Amino acid sequence: MNGAWCVFRNYAAHAAEIGGDVTERPLFFLKPPSAIVEADSEGNNFVTLLAADEHIDHELEMAVRLGDDLQPEAMCVAVDTTNRTRQGLAKQKGWPWLEGKGFRGSAVMGTWVPYREGPLDISLSLNGEVRQQARTDLMVHDVASLLSTLGEWYDLSPGDVVFTGTPEGVSPMSPGDLVEASLKDGDEVLSTLRAPVQ
Fold first, then answer.
1. Which residue among 4, 43, 166, 177 is least crowded, i.e. fewest CB within 10 A of its CB?
2. Residue pair 190/113 in contact by the 8 Å Cβ criterion
């Protein structure tokens, strides 16, 4: 299984809520293959916190998967789970962020569907309360720009996954919570995710 390329601060409102700025060109971090947890055909999955006593946020995203031509062939709703406790310590110490962003099970995928151009709607609820909701045309850098930048700097491979950024509204999760997310084109539901937190 391939890992995931994840773009940094690609929605202006999310950058503002975490006290950061958007960047002139897209910047990326990596999640290893062990981070990726695939949903079943009905969108059922799970979120593993690993360190439940620490601050771990959900980050709603649209993810795309690359085909043999290194262009998007499929897409899904996904959740990038972020350990803010570990990430914050890494920022203070000048350490890599891998413990905060790439831990086992930190890329929770919904159902895959054939890729289509946007704008699309993504949303996430926690225990039935909507926490994140946005249209993909609010991304600072669109999918084509993300792939162009990745192609300039890195060797992409068929099957690579690209996380396209999270909108505002991230919040912490606890064991026993239920994360539900969707990717829609108007009223048409394209991809779903239902993931109890453990």
1. 177
2. yes
